[in-house]
């Protein structure tokens, strides 16, 4: 015979499965981040996009949604077995090892906050609402 706690757990799990989007819907209103593309090598004009975030979602998910909804934004990445997703190209511009170029992830927290270099990449970084994500093409 099932205990009341087991029945309650089962019903809670069943409810999550029956209510579409309960785990993916935004919590606490719209969660938008600003994504700015900076090419410090060619000095091309910056490009800025707004990306929709799910509550506590990873940056890679927001970038995928942005790519699906905005034909002007494209990116590619590879999956490193040790370090996870590695950003290869943005809007047709790819990093090249021989030229020592790559895409750097930077984040400006808040409207006038400091620009930081997160210690994780696009597959692990969890943006806060109103973060400004900066994808900067640069040299090492």
UniProtKB/TrEMBL annotation:
Residues 69-139 form the Transcobalamin-like C-terminal domain. The keyword Signal applies. It comes from Coregonus suidteri. GO terms for molecular function: cobalamin binding. InterPro entries: Cobalamin_Transport (IPR051588), Transcobalamin-like_C (IPR027954). One of its GO terms (biological process) is cobalamin transport. One of its GO terms (cellular component) is extracellular space. Keywords: Signal. Residues 1-24 form the signal peptide. This is Transcobalamin-like C-terminal domain-containing protein.
């Amino acid at each position: 015979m099932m205990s009341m706690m087991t029945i309650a757990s089962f019903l809670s799990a069943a409810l999550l499965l029956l209510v579409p989007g309960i785990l993916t819907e935004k919590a606490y209103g719209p969660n938008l981040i600003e994504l700015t593309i900076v090419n410090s090598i060619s000095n091309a004009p910056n490009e800025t996009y707004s990306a929709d975030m799910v509550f506590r979602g990873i940056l890679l998910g927001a970038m995928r949604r942005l790519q699906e909804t905005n034909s002007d934004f494209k990116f590619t990445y590879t999956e490193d077995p040790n370090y996870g997703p590695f950003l290869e190209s943005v809007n047709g511009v790819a990093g090249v090892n021989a030229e020592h170029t790559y895409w750097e992830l930077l984040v400006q927290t808040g409207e006038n906050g400091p620009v930081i270099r997160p210690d994780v990449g696009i597959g692990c970084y969890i943006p806060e609402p109103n973060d400004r994500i900066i994808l900067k093409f640069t040299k090492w």
